[in-house]
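Per reviewer request, we include the raw input and output of the structure prediction for the construct analysed in the revised manuscript.
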Amino acid sequence: MCLRCYSTHCAREERGAGKAVSETENLIRVCEGFIYTSQLRRFLLNHPLLVIELGFSLELDPCAPYGFDVEQTLPCRYWFAEKLRQLDRSLLQALLHATVAALQQEIPGLGETVAFDVKHIYGWVKENNERYLRLSRPALPLSLAVSREDRSHL
């Protein structure tokens, strides 16, 4: 855990800015298609005006392009991940149900069929999986088995 980020950004949360920042950062994560927290942080490092708009406590630096140090202003990856873990599960569940209902209205028959034909997958595994090939090959009788050294002379 990064103590610098934890102590600096906890003070801002006590003033009430943390929850709004957390919700907005997660919207950015979804809209931009980020899977990892480090991707979100890197994105915000490249968009300093968005950092201002999100309401982070700015670490002023007169030499920096926008008058603040973006690296020092943004919390560490741990802080972002912790905010994601603290999201209200019931809110996320309601969002999922609303999304599924909206998709079912747009796409008739969505979710009615859940059976899939996977024979082609089993066939591919049988042909390409070394472990399956070792188990499925019949063992040669010892009298027919030829060592690698013997094969090199053939």
